[in-house]
Amino acid sequence: METETKERVIAPKKTQKLRLLSGMRPTGRLHLGNYAGALQNWVHLQHEYDAFFMVADWHAMTALYEDMSELPDNTRQVMIDFIAAGLDPERATLFVQSHIKEHAELALLLGMFTPVPWLERTPSYKEAVVDNQDKHLETLGFLGYPVLQAADIVIYKANVVPVGEDQVPHLEMCRELVRRVNFLYGNLFPEPQPILSQTPRLLGNDGRKMSKSYDNCIYLSDGAKLVEKKVARMVTDPARVRRYDLGHPEVCSVFDYHKHFNKREEPQIAEGCRAGTLGCVDCKKRLAAVLNEMLEPMRAKRAELEAKPKRVERVMADGAERAREAATKTMAQVRQAMRLP
Ligand code: TRP
Ligand code: SF4
């Protein structure tokens, strides 16, 4: 697997860009971790690839089917975050998974030859079922999560899939399924390659893993004052009790943020921290200022979109139309290859 994930993808020709697909589950508004770990990269990738970005609402449903009340709003909010963060609906195809019913049909067909033990061995499955006993995840839907994800990818014949490390087993399963399809029914799909984004280590402001369920994240949609407040509460190097104590930036979660979002000042900050000349309060003020500078244009874009709800609907409808065109074309080939009417 190691070597396979490092396989190089042939550079796209100017005229014929490679197809890219990725998705995010709408479990809430997006936070800085989602931005740094995925979205920021997607914004660059949309220029190099024929890119499809999807709000994976069916995937979100696999874990929250018992309470769907927030899903429609979250789906819309994530779409707004996509656009506000710089995904360009004129350039990339932005769509909502459940708008393209063909994904479900293809997932069903892939399921015909997906061995259940493969799914049961998926690390994300085993862990999630144990960790979330209250969510009752021993369902066909949740077990089949990677099959649906494979359908998402191959229905667009995607060549590359930008994902974080945690998604590599799903990509690997997708590749296995592609090999099966191509062997059983003829060459239908390319084997998708992951583009691994290194997820920078960004902790929540309580020092725990950044997570919506811990309520410790800075959201892309947070206002400037709230960002200042959240940054001020962040956990720092415990050795720095007084202003002039010598610090260790490498153990400080504020510094992790500087490393990712404030490369320019990173060296001075590390130096000032170690020498005890930079206080944590000032260090955090610098960080909040840098984050707010980055988030300000996103807030403006978001406000613009919220003022014109029709605009977001249109983006989703246009995206769905483009996605559907590609998906129906693939499905016609799939049905024919599988001898379905
Ligand atoms: N499972 C992915 C995640 O949680 C989201 C996702 C759904 C996805 N379908 C996809 C990612 C297809 C890449 C390709 O991050
Ligand atoms: Fe962290 Fe900055 Fe304080 Fe150093 S000065 S401990 S990097 S907050």
Description of the molecule:
By secondary structure, this protein is mainly α. 54% of the residues lie in helices and 7% in strands. The protein contains 15 helices and five strands. The chain has helices at residues 2-5, 32-48, 57-64, 71-84, 102-111, 116-121, 123-131, 140-143, 145-154, 168-185, 224-232, 253-261, 266-275, 280-307, 309-337; strands spanning 19-24, 50-55, 93-96, 160-163, 193-196. A three-stranded parallel beta sheet has the order 1-2-3. The radius of gyration is 22 Å and the shape is elongated. The two termini are 37 Å apart. Tryptophan binds next to strand 1, helix 9 and strand 4.
Summarize the structure.
It contains 15 helices and five strands. With 341 residues, the protein is mainly alpha-helical.
Give the CATH H-level superfamily of the largest domain: HUPs
Briefly note the structural class of the backbone. mainly alpha
Name every ligand kind in the structure.
tryptophan, iron/sulfur cluster
Number of structural domains: 2
Gyration radius, to the nearest Å?
A: 22 Å
CATH topology of the largest domain: Rossmann fold
Low-confidence stretches: 1-6
Number of strands: 5
Helix content: 40-55%
**Can you tell me the CATH class of the largest domain?**
Alpha Beta
Largest sheet strand order: 1-2-3
Q: Summarize the main sheet.
A: 3 strands, parallel
Query: pLDDT average, as an integer?
Result: 94
Distance between the termini: 37 Å
Number of helices: 15
Order of helices and strands: HEHEHHEHHHHHEHEHHHHH
